[in-house]
Amino acid sequence: MILIFNRCYKLSSLPNISKGNTNNVTDMWSMFSGCSSLSSLPNDSKFNTNNVKDMNSMFIGCKALIIPSKFK
User: What is the pLDDT, as a whole number, of residue 35?
Assistant: First the structure.
């Protein structure tokens, strides 16, 4: 899922990412980087990050976002 939402400047929220299966995702590098309007992420346990090895720069440039603790 590398760079999947990269530079989506007008993206302010992710309405329903819980329907996506992230169980086998291992790399979320820069997934939301540059999404300067993104202000929230769903607090949904179905957004599974257990197998993710790289979250480097995942939220870089997300100036409006309060990052959920599961991603810190």
Answer: 92
Helix (H, G, I), strand (E, B) or coil at 40: strand
Residue indicated by tokens 């590398």: 2
pLDDT digits (tens, 9 = 90+) for 23-69: 899 998 998 899 999 998 776 656 778 899 998 998 899 999 887 77
Domain boundaries of the chain, sorted by first residue: 1-72
66: left (phi over 0), alpha (psi -120 to 50) or beta: beta
DSSP letters for 12-38: -B-TTGGGS--TT--B-TTTTTT-TT-
